Amino acid sequence: MNIIWKICIASLLISAIGCKEDKPASSVETTAKPPVRVPAFQRDSAYLYIAKQVAFGPRVPGSEGHQKCKVWLVEKFESFGANVIQQDFTARIYTGDAWPATNIIAQFNPKHKSRILLAAHWDTRMVGEEDPDNNKQNIPIPGADDGGSGVGVLLEIGRIISENPIDLGVDIILFDAEDQGQRGAQAPIDNWCLGAQYWSRNIHRKNYKPEFGILLDMVGAKNPRFAQDQISLRYAGDIMRKVWKLAQNMGYTDVFVNNQAGNITDDHFFVNTIAQIPMIDIINQPLGSKTGFHEHWHTHGDDMDIINKRSLQIVGQVVTAVIYKQSDGTF
């Protein structure tokens, strides 16, 4: 009896173990997200957003055009359903002047824990020191490309998010007082990008740790060439390579090139070094330029005639693809 009883107990144990190990695969939970459709970027819309900014006139901090443009930008983002923060600060420029300035922060899905940061600067240069006409060198520039183009692309992305819900938190920051620094090899770099410096030291929410950031600067001219700058590679090299690879897979190998460029003092430098948020810069760096930038840079030629809709389409579609692919885990 003892032997038979032991055999029965052993059989029952084996059966129980077998049932546990043979659990149907269909009952195993999965956390994979379904792939999303990347919405189409509307270049005509981005173009009109740039034209609207330029119509206000130069957006030098403290000017009438600056104030009117700020009101419009805030209202536009709010119309897209964003939670908008106006971060006011005093921009103390190298001349000793103190100007009222504002970083505009548009939050989409503000309660979502997973976030990314998109940015551009919205102010325009107070002088046109590179203008071939000496009489215009002390006059503020229109800033269609340098200031307007990045903002126009981000406004269109804000509109896209409002009409195509995304499972991701997206913060769009328009930095102020970026372009009011002193030129010259001996000039300190911290008299540029004042808005980015202020925000990086006074981030709009506690424990803010986005996955990464993308900065857009001068993205609207014809035949752009986006090389990989050293600051982006140093602090966010993996992100830069992924964005460039995605752009090239989308057919833009002639625009997003693998060539390395030098150090660029731009908003992303301070976001990387002060806020310690990995951020890359998409910025036009044509070959053969004496300044390293387009020939209209810091001149009065930086008007709507410079803006090319194909360039806006390329940059806008790539960044749109990045955020929607990030939302479903395929970026």
Could you characterize what this model shows?
With 331 residues, this protein is of the alpha/beta class. A 6-stranded mixed β-sheet has the order 1-2-4-3-5-8, with helices on both faces. A two-stranded parallel ribbon has the order 6-7. β1 and β2 form a beta hairpin. The protein is globular. The N terminus is likely disordered.
The ordered string of helix (H) and strand (E) elements is: HHHEEEHEHEEHEHEH
Total E-strand runs: 8
What structural class is derived from the secondary structure elements?
alpha/beta
Spans of at least 5 consecutive residues with low confidence: 1-30
Shape: globular
- If you compute it from the alpha carbons, what radius of gyration comes out, rounded to the nearest whole angstrom? 25 Å
Q: How many separate helices?
A: 8
> What is the mean predicted local confidence, pLDDT?
92
The fraction of residues in strands falls at 15-25%
Distance between the termini: 66 Å
How much helix is in the residues?
25-40%
Profile the largest sheet. 6 strands, mixed
For the largest sheet, list the strands in their spatial order: 1-2-4-3-5-8
